[in-house]
């Protein structure tokens, strides 16, 4: 069953019923954005206070979900069975139940107690999940079905009625959460009605804030305020920062890939120019499994970020860019037993055994994520760093080569069938709209590709400079010199044997076996 949507023109009624106050602002259509918040006819200079004020009891966060569960014993059963894993999971579970309540047919028993959010979700758009997350969302939905099917009430309310949720409804509540969740200073990840309809911008003129009342908790609220010194004229759009609340925003800026995933587009000037790559141990490392175990499992990663005004970089200035990379596992990956690394099974008092990691005969199991600092005090630290830099170079080069190899793939945006005589007006319009969508997707993909290529290229230059510095380090020069001397000695010792072998072969060549 389709998600019921209400026109935004009817939102003022919901606002008045739930004490949400708009001051000299209203929602309106925004070109290329759908809708957003704009100033009223008289404009706004912020002197009147909050642009939007939302009572705290309407804010949806983990504590609010828990309070709802106290009022609805059926939801309590569902939350205990399928929730309590993350803030996102609990909020999505609540949203799905409210969506199901809204889908209920006349005469059907409501799946849960209706609350203001039951109606509010009907104002939210029908977004779609992207391919990259479909598998994960399917797994979550299947897990929810499995856990809730053991609860008779929810088996009937969710899975036995025609108006029950489908997989696309789980996609929908996830999309709502991703694109609308705000990180409030006190409440954490939260969804705030009406304020979540304000669009984001690289140059915001407003910010949101969580206000506490000394009188009573009931008077607490979340407000939208104009930034100091800002004034908006009539019909000007009011926007907030991608990075968070506060007059100057937060440092928690989304990477370009996450911005594309959450909002459907990338603002190069607002997104962090960074990416995360999977990082795997050497396939022939006999200690690989042990290293992964103490490091938290197989999902190790390399994070690379281009710092500074990356949006204004060009090909001639990439080398001057500052790059920050993070990969604690790379340090552990590049040392072995001959360097002083060891793993031992230790028996606990309860009879169980635990794998412990030792470095220079000291148990450092609990410091696996801080292994770089452990290496820094070793006399061969520059040697270890050189190994790490070399390994990172190889990983980044491989990723860049994969991206360049896929560069020839183009997204077709033109319809090859130009037989207008057999195409109806409706079909032609659908094809034009479909082409526009594909063209927009191709544009956003190209922006992401360009950002990530710049990050990788700049990282390679930075690592090469770091490698050159390490190769001139006195410790490294001495170490490599001793290694070369050892190899020459081995080659010299092998030479007489090789000469005897060559002589025997020459003698054998004179024999005639015909």
The stretches of 5 or more residues where confidence is low (pLDDT under 50) are: 313-320, 408-433
Span of the ends, CA to CA: 88 Å
* Range of strand content: 5-15%
Q: How many helix segments?
A: 15
Instruction: Tell me the major beta sheet.
Output: 4 strands, antiparallel
Radius of gyration: 31 Å
Number of domains: 3
Protein name: Set domain-containing protein
Biased composition (Acidic residues): 411-434, 500-514
InterPro entries: SET_dom, SET_dom_sf, SETD3_SETD6_MTase
Region (Disordered): 403-436, 487-514
Features:
3 domains, Beta-clip-like, globular, set domain protein methyltransferase, domain 2, 17 strands, 514 residues, alpha+beta
What does this 3D model show about the protein?
- Helix 4 crosses helix 8 and helix 6 packs across helix 8.
- The chain has 15 helices and 17 strands.
- The chain has 514 residues and is of the alpha+beta class.
- The longest helix is centred in the last third of the chain and has 47 residues.
- Strand 16 and strand 17 form a beta hairpin.
- The protein folds into three domains: 119 residues, Beta-clip-like; 126 residues, no CATH class; 190 residues, set domain protein methyltransferase, domain 2, CATH 3.90.1420.
- The termini are far apart.
- A four-stranded antiparallel beta sheet has the order 1-4-9-8, with no helix packed on it.
């Amino acid at each position: 069953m389709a998600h019921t949507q209400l026109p935004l023109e009817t939102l003022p009624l919901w606002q008045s019923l739930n004490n949400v106050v708009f001051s000299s602002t209203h929602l309106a259509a925004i070109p290329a954005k759908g809708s957003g918040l704009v100033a009223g006819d008289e404009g706004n200079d912020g002197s009147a206070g909050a642009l939007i004020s939302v009572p705290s009891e309407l804010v949806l966060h983990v504590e609010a979900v828990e309070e709802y569960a106290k009022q609805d014993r059926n939801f309590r059963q569902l939350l205990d069975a399928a929730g309590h894993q993350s803030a996102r999971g609990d909020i999505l579970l609540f949203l799905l139940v409210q969506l199901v309540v809204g889908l209920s047919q006349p005469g059907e028993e409501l799946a849960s107690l209706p609350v203001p959010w039951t109606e509010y979700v009907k104002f939210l758009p029908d977004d779609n999940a992207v391919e990259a997350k479909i598998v994960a969302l399917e797994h979550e939905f299947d897990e929810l079905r499995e856990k809730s099917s053991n609860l008779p009430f929810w088996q009937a309310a969710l899975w036995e009625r025609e108006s029950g949720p489908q997989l696309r409804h789980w996609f929908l509540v996830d999309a709502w959460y991703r694109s609308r969740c705000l990180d409030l200073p006190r409440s954490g990840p939260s969804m705030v009605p009406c304020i979540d309809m304000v669009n984001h911008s690289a140059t915001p003129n407003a910010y949101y804030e969580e206000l506490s009342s000394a009188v009573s908790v009931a008077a607490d609220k979340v407000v939208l305020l104009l930034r100091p010194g800002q004034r908006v004229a009539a019909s000007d759009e009011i926007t907030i920062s991608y990075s968070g609340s506060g007059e100057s925003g937060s440092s928690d800026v989304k990477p370009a890939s996450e911005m594309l995933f959450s909002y459907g587009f990338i603002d190069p000037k607002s997104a962090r120019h960074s990416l995360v790559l999977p990082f795997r141990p050497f396939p022939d490392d006999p200690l690989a499994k042990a290293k992964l175990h103490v490091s938290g499992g197989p999902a190790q990663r390399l994070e690379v970020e281009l710092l500074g005004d990356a949006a204004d970089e060009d090909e001639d200035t990439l080398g001057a860019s500052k790059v920050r990379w993070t990969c604690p596992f790379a340090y552990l990956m590049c040392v072995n037993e001959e360097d002083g690394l060891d793993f031992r099974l230790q028996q606990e008092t309860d009879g169980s055994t635990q794998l412990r990691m030792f470095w220079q005969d000291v148990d450092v199991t609990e410091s696996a994520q801080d292994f770089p600092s452990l290496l820094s005090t070793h006399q061969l630290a520059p040697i270890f760093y050189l190994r790490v830099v070399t390994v990172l170079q190889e990983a980044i080069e491989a990723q860049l080569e994969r991206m360049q190899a896929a560069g020839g793939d183009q997204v077709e945006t033109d319809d090859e069938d130009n037989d207008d005589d057999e195409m109806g007006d409706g079909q032609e319009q659908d094809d034009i709209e479909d082409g526009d969508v594909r063209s927009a997707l191709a544009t956003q993909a190209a922006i992401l590709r360009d950002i990530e290529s710049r990050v990788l290229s700049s990282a390679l230059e930075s690592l090469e400079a770091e490698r050159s510095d390490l190769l001139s380090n006195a410790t490294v020069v001495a170490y490599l010199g001793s290694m070369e001397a050892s190899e020459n000695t081995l080659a010299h010792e092998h030479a007489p044997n090789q000469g005897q072998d060559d002589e025997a072969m020459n003698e054998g060549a004179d024999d005639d076996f015909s």
